[in-house]
Amino acid sequence: MTIKEVVRNYSQRLKQITHIPAKEVEILICHILEKNNIWLHLNYNNEFNQIEKLEKLINKREKDYPLEYLIGKASFYGESFLVRENVLIPRPETEILVDNAIEILKETQNKTVLEIGTGSGIISVMLALLIKDIKIIAVDINDDALALAKENAKKHSVEDKITFIKSDLYTDIDKNEDIFMTISNPPYIANNYKLPTNVKYEPSNALFGGEVGDELLKNIIDETSKREIKYLLCEMGYDQKKPLENYLNNFNIKDYSFYQDYEKFDRGFTIEFKN
Length: 275
Hints:
- The chain is of the alpha/beta class.
- The protein folds into two domains: 3-63; 87-273, Vaccinia Virus protein VP39 (Rossmann fold, 3-Layer(aba) Sandwich), CATH 3.40.50.150.
- It contains ten helices and eleven strands.
- It has helices at residues 3-11, 21-33, 37-42, 51-62, 67-71, 94-105, 122-130, 143-155, 215-226, 241-247, and strands spanning 73-76, 79-82, 112-116, 135-140, 162-166, 181-184, 189-190, 208-210, 231-235, 253-260, 266-273.
- It is elongated.
């Protein structure tokens, strides 16, 4: 079969899984052949002789196994990042969190940032790429995540700007460290929430935040306040704005704001503490 025929035939099997079945088949073919999309379309009428490899990938994708895990990479902020099983897959809405951090960091002298729950390292790596003279401490409790984040830092040549530490939130962070900002995309889904099939393949400890879902977020707010860190930026669940806003009444806060994601759901907040 030609590449064109393969795309047409196999895309039928992914119609119930994705709204771009043909595009996904093309992505898988490019992954197998180690070619880009331009090459693919220039060679659309050539024979494709790696059907067995494609069949294995399609079989997995048919079961809603994430495309990013199949090809080992994901796009974030226009850059390519390595992705691996047992580490959360980057989401486009996290780009907004990075944007918000950049707006604050570019106006300040102290550019020491702590990222809690670094995962694949996308937030820390992008901040390191976009902010001059930044110093980042990136923590996670997942050894696989830390290993992958280090790989992504090296891939983007920013490993000298980021210190990776295994830590549960602030536990292993030096109390004397002069941190200006904490940033986090922590687990914030309620434990009893029924996940879509594709998300079930991702690590549960990067998704579930407790019985209600916002427990870890509240812990981060508590500890950030105690450590007298000026800024806290976090992602959150779409239904957590009101309870978190009420919770902020317990703290000495100069200013705070919530933001929405690309779908207009409440998705995160910025807190400026009074120091």
